[in-house]
Design a protein that fits this description.
15 strands, binds zinc ion, Alkaline Phosphatase, subunit A, two-stranded antiparallel sheet, seven-stranded mixed β-sheet, alpha/beta
C-alpha cells in the first residue's frame, strides 16, 4: 500500500478524471467500465512515488498533480472548442498552429460561455483540492492524541485493506489492457494500430501515448507517399469518358443482392438495368481487407497488395485523374473533413485529410454528413462541361442496419426470411440488412438518374462485405480473426462490382460494354481498380499497368492476398473445396 500522503492522489485523480468525462463525451460506456483501470493506474503511480526518499515525495506529487491537471484541463478545452479529444490529429494541429491562430483560439475561448463554465468547474475542483490539503495540514498540526489513535487504529487499516482489495480485483481488467498497450507500442503499421480497442486509452495520458505512437507510424508511411507524389506524371488523351463516378458502398454482402442470386428482391433497379443491358456485373471481385480504412488505402493507391512493399509505395490515383484534367470530388458520408474526431473515427481518413494529399487529389469535398446516403447527392454537381470524376463514399449497409432505412424502406420483415435455423430476432436483423440493401439500390438509381442523359460510366464497388447470419457463423457484422475462414471470405471479402453505362456512352464508346462483358467472370482484386479508372479516363501515366486493367486485353489474373498477406483468397477457398463446405 502506498504511504498515506498518496491517499489524496486517489481522491483527486478520480475527481479529475470524472470531471474530464463530464466535460467531454469521450465514450458512451458507463464510468464503471473504466474505474478498475483508473484505480490500478493511480495505485501504480502511488507506488512509484513511495520508491522515492521521503523528502522528495511532496515534490513528486506536486509534479504529478500539475501534469494531471494540465492534461485534463487542456483536453476539456480542446473538446469545447473543436469537439475533439486528444488524437493524433490534435498533435498535428498543435504543431501547425501559428501564433495568430493561437491568439484567435484564446479570443474565441474568452468569448464562449462554455469556456467560462468549464473554467468554473475546474476552478471548483482545484479549490476543493486546496481545501483538502489545508484541512489535512490543520488536522496534522492540531490533532489530539485521541483522534490520532482513532485514525491509526480503527479506520485507516480498514480503508487501506479495502483499497488494496479493490485494486487487487481491478487487476483482472487492468492486466489484459496494459498488455494490449504494450503490444500496441510494438506495432509497425497504421492499419494494425487502427484495430486496437480504444477503451485501453481511457484517460488523457494514455491518449497522448496513443497519439504519439500513431503519429510515428503515419509520418513514416505518409512521408514515403508524399515523396512519390512530388512529381506526378499524367497527361490527358482524347479517349477519356467525360463523367466517371466511383460509388464506394459499405459493408455490402453481395450474396444478399438479388443481382448476385439472393432470393429476395433486394436490388430491383440493378436487376432491371442488367436486363436492359446497361449494367455489367463482375462475378469474381475480391477485396484485400474487411476494414474500411485499409481498403481505402489499397484502393486509392496505384500499388497493389500482391506487389512487394506497401500502399505508400504507389501514388493516390485521384491525383493522377486531377493532373490529367478531371475535376475530382470526394463526397463521403463517413470520413469527416472536420476536426470533430475521437481516436476511433480518426481511422482511415488520415491520409485523405492531410495536406498535401487533400489538395493534390480533390477539387471539392463535402462539409456535411447526411443521415441517409441519398442526402449526400445534394452535394454532387451532376454532369458538367469539364471532365468530372466523383468518388461517392456511402454509409451503405453499415450497422445498425435499421438506422439506414428511410420511411419507405421497411419492405421485408422477419417472416420473409426463410431461415428455420434462426430465431425471430435474428431473422429481423437479416430483414433489416436486406432492406438496407434495397435502400442502397435506390441510392444507386438516384446517382444514375443524374447522369442518364450524359456520357457517363458509374462504377459501384463495396469496400468489403458483411456477415449476416449466413452459414453457421452465427453472427452479423465482421469477424476479425487472424486467419479468415472460407465462410468469412465468402461473406466479407467477395464484393459486388458493377458498371452502369448510360445510353450515350453505350452509343459513343461501344468498346467499354464489350470489354466489360468479356471481363465479367475474370478474377479481380479491387486494389487494382485504379488502373481501370485511369483507362476509362484515358489518362496516360507510367503508373498505369494494362495487366491490372480489367478492361484491357492484356489483363492477367493474379493471386489475391488478403489481410496484409496472411494468405491469398485462392488458398483459403481451396480449403473450402477440400472440405466440401456448404454455406447456405
Ligand atoms: Zn467498411
Amino acid at each position: 500500500m502506498p504511504p498515506r500522503e498518496c491517499t489524496l492522489l486517489f481522491v483527486v485523480g478520480t475527481a479529475v478524471w470524472l470531471l474530464l468525462r463530464a466535460t467531454t463525451n469521450w465514450s458512451e460506456d458507463s464510468n464503471w467500465v473504466y474505474m478498475p483501470h483508473l484505480l490500478v493506474d493511480l495505485y501504480v503511480v502511488g507506488l512509484l512515488v513511495c520508491l522515492l526518499p521521503k523528502r522528495w515525495r511532496p515534490w513528486a506529487l506536486a509534479v504529478i498533480y500539475i501534469i494531471m491537471y494540465a492534461c485534463a484541463i487542456g483536453e476539456s478545452f480542446i473538446y469545447q472548442r473543436y469537439y475533439m479529444h486528444f488524437t493524433p490529429q490534435t498533435l498535428t494541429m498543435i504543431r501547425e498552429t501559428t501564433p495568430a491562430e493561437s491568439e484567435g483560439f484564446v479570443r474565441l475561448c474568452l468569448e464562449s460561455p462554455v469556456f467560462w463554465r468549464t473554467l468554473m468547474w475546474w476552478g471548483l475542483l482545484l479549490l476543493g483540492h486546496m481545501l483538502l490539503l489545508v484541512g489535512r495540514w490543520v488536522l496534522k498540526k492540531f490533532e489530539s492524541p485521541r483522534v490520532r489513535e482513532f485514525g491509526s487504529s480503527k479506520i485507516m487499516p480498514w480503508v487501506a485493506r479495502g483499497v488494496a482489495a479493490l485494486t487487487l480485483v481491478s487487476l483482472i481488467w487492468w492486466v489484459p489492457a496494459r498488455i494490449e498497450v504494450a503490444r500496441f507500442l510494438m506495432l509497425e503499421r497504421t492499419e494494425q494500430a487502427e484495430r486496437v480497442d480504444n477503451g485501453i486509452f481511457y484517460s488523457t495520458p494514455w491518449r497522448v501515448v496513443y497519439s504519439l505512437k500513431y503519429e510515428q507510424l503515419t509520418v513514416r508511411e505518409v512521408g514515403r507517399l508524399a515523396a512519390n507524389m512530388q512529381q506526378l506524371d499524367a497527361v490527358p488523351t482524347d479517349s477519356g469518358v467525360p463523367n466517371i463516378v466511383l460509388v464506394i458502398g459499405e459493408s455490402h454482402n453481395k450474396h444478399h443482392s438479388a443481382v448476385y442470386g439472393y432470393s429476395l428482391p433486394t436490388t430491383p433497379w440493378q436487376s432491371e438495368m442488367e436486363r436492359q443491358g446497361l449494367m455489367v456485373k463482375m462475378t469474381d471481385a475480391v477485396t484485400p481487407w474487411n476494414v474500411t480504412s485499409s481498403v481505402f488505402k489499397e484502393m486509392m493507391s496505384t500499388h497493389s497488395c500482391d506487389q512487394p512493399g506497401q500502399w505508400t509505395d504507389g501514388v493516390l490515383f485521384p491525383a493522377l485523374m486531377r493532373k490529367a484534367g478531371y475535376r475530382v470530388g470526394f463526397l463521403s458520408n463517413q470520413f469527416y473533413k472536420t476536426n470533430r474526431q475521437t481516436a476511433a473515427n480518426y481511422n482511415g481518413s488520415f491520409f485523405l485529410n492531410s495536406q498535401p494529399f487533400d489538395s493534390l487529389c480533390f477539387d471539392y469535398r463535402n462539409r456535411k454528413h447526411y443521415v441517409y446516403d441519398i442526402g449526400l447527392l445534394r452535394e454532387m454537381p451532376g454532369a458538367q462541361d469539364t471532365c468530372s470524376f466523383v468518388i461517392l463514399h456511402l454509409l451503405g449497409q453499415h450497422q445498425p442496419y435499421d438506422e439506414r432505412l428511410t420511411k419507405q424502406g421497411h419492405i421485408f420483415s422477419a417472416k420473409d426470411v426463410k431461415r428455420k435455423d434462426l430465431s425471430a430476432g435474428e431473422r429481423k436483423v437479416v430483414a433489416d440488412y436486406d432492406n438496407a440493401t434495397r435502400e442502397n439500390d435506390r441510392v444507386l438509381k438516384a446517382v444514375y438518374e443524374r447522369y442518364r442523359d450524359h456520357e457517363a460510366v458509374i462504377i459501384y464497388v463495396a469496400d468489403h462485405g458483411e456477415e449476416v447470419y449466413d452459414g453457421n457463423i452465427g453472427m452479423f457484422g465482421r469477424n476479425h480473426m487472424a486467419e479468415p475462414t472460407p465462410q468469412i471470405m465468402w461473406a466479407e471479402f467477395e464484393v459486388p462490382l458493377e458498371f452502369f453505362l448510360t445510353p450515350v456512352v453505350e452509343k459513343r464508346r461501344p468498346w467499354i460494354g464489350r470489354a466489360l462483358r468479356e471481363a465479367q467472370a475474370k478474377p479481380f482484386g479491387t486494389d487494382d481498380l485504379a488502373h481501370l479508372v485511369l483507362r476509362l479516363g484515358g489518362v496516360k501515366t507510367r503508373y498505369y499497368d494494362s495487366e491490372r486493367d480489367l478492361l484491357s486485353p492484356h489483363f492477367s489474373p493474379r493471386p489475391r492476398p488478403v489481410k496484409g498477406g496472411v494468405a491469398t483468397y485462392e488458398e483459403i477457398m481451396a480449403r473450402d473445396k477440400e472440405k466440401g463446405v456448404r454455406r447456405r
